[in-house]
């Protein structure tokens, strides 16, 4: 945590959810009459759906940048050997990088939930109608479903000195995710959108957690065996 204080990582953690809420504020502000009429039966549900659609690509690009920046600290200072010389296991170093990225994205998801409620109040949506369960699902289920990609980007960022490659893969994945809902449920890029044949968002979140553990384990094994320079 101390190493990232002087970086823009915390700024990016806040910028993501603020950007999503800000764009939806503009969207609803410019089309208030049309959208409130369209979602008259469920104003909060309409807001959550619109926020959720922007949240997923923001998570994808955000995790790529955050993973790259957290790993880039050691690459820029050529301090991997010094870190690995400390009395800690290589697996613990890798898992620590993963947990740091996951924690920052969790903070972003939490800020997004709070920002969505604030936007709803600003739009004069009834406070008594806030769908708390759906709000939490919108904020945290995509986060859980995207865990495999957090592990993957940390893996790439830690093992690749050239962060441009890791970022390029992350950006390409973000673009691909926009079209992923056309695929069947086996497509991991589709999971954060919480769309599946069972029509149960928990199914997508559970797949993300399970596959995320698999990717994390594979990354740890490869990092432990790799001779990091």
From TrEMBL:
Keywords for the protein's UniProt record, in alphabetical order: Membrane, Transmembrane, Transmembrane helix
Annotated transmembrane regions: 49-73, 94-120, 140-158, 165-183, 203-224
Superkingdom of source: Bacteria
Origin species: Paenibacillus beijingensis
Signal peptide location: none
Stated name of the protein: Permease
């Amino acid at each position: 945590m101390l190493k990232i204080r002087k970086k823009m990582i915390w700024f990016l953690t806040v910028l993501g959810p603020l950007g999503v809420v800000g764009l939806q504020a503009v969207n609803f502000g410019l089309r208030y009459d049309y959208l409130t009429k369209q979602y008259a039966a469920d104003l909060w549900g309409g807001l959550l759906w619109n926020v959720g659609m922007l949240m997923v690509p923001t998570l994808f690009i955000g995790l790529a940048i955050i993973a790259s920046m957290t790993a880039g600290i050691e690459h820029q200072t050529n301090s991997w050997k010094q870190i690995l010389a400390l009395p800690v296991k290589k697996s613990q170093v890798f898992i620590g990088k993963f947990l740091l990225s996951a924690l920052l994205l969790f903070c972003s998801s939490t800020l997004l939930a709070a920002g969505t409620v604030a936007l709803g109040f600003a739009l004069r949506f009834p406070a008594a109608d806030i769908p708390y369960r759906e709000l939490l699902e919108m904020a945290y289920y995509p986060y859980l479903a995207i865990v495999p990609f957090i592990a993957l980007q940390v893996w790439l960022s830690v093992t690749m000195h050239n962060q441009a490659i890791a970022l390029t893969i992350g950006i390409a994945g973000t673009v691909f995710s926009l079209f992923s809902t056309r695929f069947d449920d086996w497509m991991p890029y589709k999971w954060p959108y919480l769309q599946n044949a069972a029509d149960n968002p928990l199914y997508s979140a559970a797949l993300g957690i399970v596959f995320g553990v698999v990717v994390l384990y594979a990354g740890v094994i490869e990092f432990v065996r790799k001779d990091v320079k």
